[in-house]
Q: What sequence folds into this?
C-alpha cells in the first residue's frame, strides 16, 4: 500500500474511534447520573487501577505502555466530564465568586505599597508602572515585603518572579510556599543594566562591581570582558548604586538602571550591558485580601501532588482536556519534606469562562495540597 492508501485506512479507523469515544463518554455521563443519585464518589481508584492493568494486558507487547498512557488520559477526560455533569461547586469557587462581586471595578490609584530595596530599584519602577501615584515603603528583603502584606503594614507588595534571561527568582518562589497572599496583577518591565560609577571615574580604573545576583547573571558576557574586576553580590541593584555613591573609592561601580544614575549622581561608564537586548523581568503585585478585577485572564496556583508516577501528567492532562494553556510551570522543594515538591502554575483562562469554573471546582480534590494564588491581568 502507498502512503495515500495508508492515510485513508487511518481515516476510517479514526471515524470508528470518534464514534466509540462519544459512545463511551455518553455511558460515562449515565454512570455520573447514577452516582449522583446514589451519593457515590466519582473516583473509584481500585476500578481504574484494575482497568489499566486489564487493557495493558490485552494490548500486549510493545503496546502495553502506550495503551496504559492512552487510557490514563481517557479516564481523566471521563472524570472531568462526570464532574461537570455533577455540577460540583467548591468552597474555593464560592470565595472566588465573592471576590469578583466585591472587588471594585477600578484598580487602586494611590495605595501604600511595599518594595524590596531602596529608591531607584526596579521594583519601584514596576510599582509606578502598575499604580499611578503609590506611596512606596522599602524593605531590605523579599521576606520583608511578604511580612508587610501579612501584617497589614502595606496594602500591596511588588516582587520580581522571573527574568527572560536569568530565569526564575528562586528566593521568591521559596517564600511563596511559606506566606499567605493573593496575586492581583502582574507587570513585565524592560530591564536595562548600566555600569555606574562616580563622576570622573574611567572604565579601566574599575576594580569592583556591586549588583544583585540576577543582574550579574544577566550581564555575564560583559563581565567576562573585565578579567581584573571583582564582582560582589548585594541585595538590590539600587542599593549597589547607593553604595557606590557613598563610597570614597573611585574604583567601584554598580550594575544598575539609568534612573539610579540621575538619582545618585553617578556617571554611566557603559550603557545597556545586559547579554540580551530584550531583557524583561516579570513582577507580581500581591495583597493580603483576595481581589479579582474585571478582565482578569490569568490565574496562578500552587499544589503538592501525590508522590507517585503519573501524578503531574494527570494534572496536565486535565488542563489539556479543559483547553487551558499553561504559561509557567515551576517546581520547588518543600522545606523539611524529603523529595517532595510544590508545583507552581500560571494559567491562561478568563475568570468568566466555563473552563475556569470547572477547574476551580475540581482542582482541590486532585491534589494533596492546593493553594489558589489569584486571578489577574498583566501590565505590559
A:
Amino acid at each position: 500500500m502507498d502512503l495515500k492508501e495508508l492515510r485513508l485506512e487511518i481515516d476510517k479507523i479514526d471515524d470508528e474511534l470518534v464514534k466509540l469515544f462519544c459512545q463511551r463518554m455518553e455511558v460515562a455521563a449515565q454512570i455520573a447520573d447514577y452516582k449522583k443519585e446514589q451519593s457515590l464518589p466519582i473516583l473509584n481508584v481500585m476500578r481504574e487501577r484494575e482497568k489499566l492493568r486489564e487493557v495493558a494486558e490485552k494490548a500486549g507487547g510493545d503496546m502495553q505502555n502506550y495503551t496504559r498512557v492512552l487510557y490514563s488520559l481517557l479516564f481523566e477526560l471521563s472524570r472531568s466530564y462526570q464532574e461537570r455533569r455533577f455540577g460540583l461547586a467548591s468552597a474555593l469557587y464560592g470565595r472566588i465568586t465573592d471576590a469578583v462581586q466585591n472587588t471594585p471595578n477600578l484598580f487602586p490609584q494611590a495605595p501604600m505599597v511595599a518594595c524590596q530595596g531602596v529608591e531607584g530599584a526596579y521594583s519601584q519602577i514596576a510599582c509606578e508602572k502598575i499604580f499611578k501615584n503609590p506611596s512606596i515603603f522599602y524593605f531590605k528583603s523579599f521576606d520583608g515585603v511578604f511580612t508587610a502584606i501579612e501584617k497589614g503594614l502595606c496594602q500591596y507588595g511588588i516582587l520580581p518572579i522571573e527574568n527572560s534571561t536569568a530565569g526564575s527568582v528562586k528566593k521568591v518562589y521559596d517564600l511563596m510556599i511559606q506566606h499567605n497572599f493573593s496575586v492581583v496583577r502582574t507587570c513585565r518591565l524592560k530591564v536595562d543594566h548600566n555600569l555606574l560609577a562616580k563622576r570622573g571615574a574611567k572604565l579601566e580604573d574599575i576594580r569592583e562591581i556591586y549588583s544583585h545576583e540576577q543582574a550579574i547573571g544577566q550581564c555575564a558576557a560583559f563581565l567576562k570582558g573585565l578579567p581584573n574586576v571583582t564582582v560582589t553580590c548585594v541585595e538590590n541593584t539600587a542599593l549597589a548604586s547607593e553604595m557606590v555613591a557613598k563610597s570614597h573609592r573611585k574604583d567601584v561601580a554598580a550594575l544598575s538602571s539609568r534612573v539610579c544614575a540621575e538619582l545618585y549622581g553617578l556617571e554611566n561608564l557603559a550603557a545597556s550591558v545586559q547579554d540580551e537586548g530584550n531583557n524583561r523581568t516579570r513582577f507580581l503585585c500581591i495583597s493580603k485580601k483576595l481581589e479579582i478585577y474585571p478582565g482578569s485572564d490569568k490565574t496562578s496556583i500552587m499544589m503538592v501532588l501525590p508522590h507517585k508516577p503519573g501524578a503531574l501528567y494527570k494534572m496536565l492532562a486535565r488542563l489539556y482536556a479543559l483547553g487551558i494553556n499553561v504559561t509557567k510551570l515551576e517546581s520547588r522543594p518543600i522545606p523539611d519534606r524529603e523529595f517532595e515538591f510544590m508545583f507552581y502554575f500560571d494559567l491562561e483562562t478568563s475568570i468568566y469562562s466555563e473552563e475556569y469554573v470547572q477547574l476551580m471546582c475540581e482542582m482541590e480534590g486532585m491534589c494533596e495540597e492546593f493553594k489558589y494564588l489569584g486571578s489577574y491581568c498583566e501590565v505590559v
Remarks:
- The chain has a mean pLDDT of 91.
- The radius of gyration is 26 Å.
- The first helix runs from residue 3 to 37.
